[in-house]
Amino acid sequence: MAHYKAADSKREQFRRYLEKSGVLDTLTKVLVALYEEPEKPNSALDFLKHHLGAATPENPEIELLRLELAEMKEKYEATVEENKKLKAKLAQYEPPQEEKRAE
């Protein structure tokens, strides 16, 4: 009988842990969303993975990639701007297109 109470106590502790961490609430919401779907998906597991994936915090690697992308965009814009300036500077030293054709 003592073994039964110990197992029951561990189960209750685990349930409280899941409840405190929000797992039970999140699972309930996703399952309710699946239940309320007018057309049930072919794979309920894929539905759960998709909806639970959206609720999880982002992977740190994704954040690093976003930062790297932002840096690359800034470098790209700076390069485009520099290219425009250099083209304008070069145009000062080249004869106009009409003069080239006349030769």
From TrEMBL:
The record's listing under InterPro entries reads: AMY1
Keywords associated with the record: Coiled coil, Nucleus
Kindly give the Gene3D superfamilies that the UniProt entry links to this protein. Answer: 6.10.250.1060
Q: Where in the cell is it found?
A: Nucleus
* Coiled coil start-end: 62-89
Q: Does the keyword Coiled coil apply?
A: yes
| GO molecular function per UniProt | transcription coactivator activity
Where it mainly occurs, coarsely classed, is nucleus
Transmembrane domains' residue ranges: none
- Cellular component annotations (GO), alphabetically ordered: nucleus
- Nucleus found in the keyword field: yes
What family is this protein classified in? Belongs to the AMY1 family.
Question: Would you tell me the protein name for this molecule?
Answer: c-Myc-binding protein
Q: Which organism is it from?
A: Marmota marmota marmota (Alpine marmot)
Organism classification:
Eukaryota, Metazoa, Chordata, Craniata, Vertebrata
